[in-house]
Amino acid sequence: MGFHLNAEPWAEKDLPTDREEILDAGHQIASDVLQNWKRGKLYSFKNPNGQDFQVQTFHTYHGPEYWLSRLSKHTIDETLYEKIVYYLNGSERTETGEWIMPDRTRRSRLEKEYIEVLSDCEILKLTDSGWTLVNLEYNLGKPLSIRDFSEWVYPIAPYIDNTGLEVSIVVSLNAQVPMKQSSVEKNHTAAYYASVERLSYDRNTKQLEWLMCTTSDAGGNVPKWIQNATIAKTVAKDVPFLFNFLNTKQT
Question: How many separate domains does the chain show?
Answer without folding.
Answer: 1
